[in-house]
Design a protein that fits this description.
The chain is of the alpha+beta class and 251 residues long. It has two domains: 27-142, Immunoglobulin-like (Sandwich); 144-236, Cytochrome c-like domain (Cytochrome Bc1 Complex, Chain D, domain 2), CATH 1.10.760.10. It has helices at residues 2-26, 144-161, 186-189, 194-203, 223-236; strands at residues 46-51, 55-58, 67-72, 83-87, 93-95, 98-100, 106-112, 118-126, 133-142. The chain binds heme C.
Length: 251
């Protein structure tokens, strides 16, 4: 009796994991039920991103900035009073998930990412005049190791690799004669193997016949730190990093 019970529990949890994985892969764009209390007074013909796209957050937590989209008409003029619904894969939540655009034609929501690390395809949909119009938005959820890598990058690397200054850190990028790439630059970083990344981080630019302006971190970072940094750069690469030999299922 106990044994059968245990077996059933195992089956059920593995079925859930499979379902979750499927939902994540498929993007799971189920239509939200009609929203009670929200009444659109206008409709646009386009929906565009105002801010908050391409954010990088941590699994299971809210993105730091709100996601703001704008509904426009044919002339590109903002449309107040239009309905906008936000959708995402299983595990992602929006607060609110639907709303009416404000006087500037914008809809603002707060996004909480799911518990699986990776790239999340989100969308904002407005009913439109004749057919619904959709805007796709990407967000990335970092897992534990990738999160560690992002902290290390902030501490050691971003003052050179990130052209933008932040309140905590002044960017040194403009002063560098040879320009490093931001870690999101998939076109450059995706072509570098893990071994090459490891050696340029541990031994500096000259290890790969590059500029000595790229310092060596062999005395500062542990092997685990370097792995975390690589995991982080792979996670935020745009276009996405696809390791050689991995076969991706087609939609
Ligand atoms: C003092 C500035 C500086 C710091 C700090 C720095 N780098 Fe660099 N890095 C550079 C420069 C300059 C290059 C370009 C070298 C070239 O192309 O000849 C570079 C290149 C690289 C490259 C090769 C890809 C590219 O951007 O061209 C990687 C990978 C890299 N750095 C990783 C890191 C990591 C990881 C850290 C932190 C642990 C770090 N760097 C910290 C200046 C810096």
């Amino acid at each position: 009796m106990m044994k059968r019970f245990a077996a059933r529990i195992t089956f059920r949890s593995s079925a859930w994991v499979a379902l979750l994985a499927l939902a994540t892969l498929a993007g799971c764009k189920q239509n939200a039920p009609p929203v009670p209390g929200l009444k659109a007074t206008a409709a646009g013909t386009a929906i565009v991103e105002s801010s908050g796209g391409h954010q990088v957050g941590v699994t299971g937590t809210a993105l730091s900035d709100p996601l703001v989209v704008q509904v426009n008409d044919d002339q590109g003029t903002a449309v107040p009073g239009a309905l906008v619904e936000f959708h995402g894969p299983a595990g992602v939540s929006f607060d609110p998930a639907a709303m009416i655009t404000d006087s500037s034609g914008q809809a603002t929501t707060s996004v909480t990412l799911g518990s699986i690390a990776g790239r999340y395809q989100l969308s904002a949909v407005t009913p439109g005049k004749s057919r619904p119009v959709t805007l796709d938005i990407v967000a990335t959820a970092l897992g534990y190791q990738q999160r560690l890598g992002s902290i290390l990058a902030d501490k050691h690397c971003n003052r050179c690799h990130d052209p933008e200054s932040s309140p905590q850190r002044v960017s040194n990028y403009d002063n560098l004669e040879v320009k490093p790439h931001p870690f999101t630059e998939g076109n450059t970083l995706n072509k570098m193997s893990d071994a090459d990344l490891t050696s340029i981080i541990l031994h500096g630019g000259p290890a790969l016949n590059r500029s000595a302006l790229m310092p060596s971190y062999g005395n500062t970072l542990s092997a685990a730190d370097v792995r975390a940094l690589i995991a982080y750069t792979r996670a935020v690469a745009d276009p996405p990093y696809q390791p050689a030999g991995t076969v991706y299922a087609r939609k």
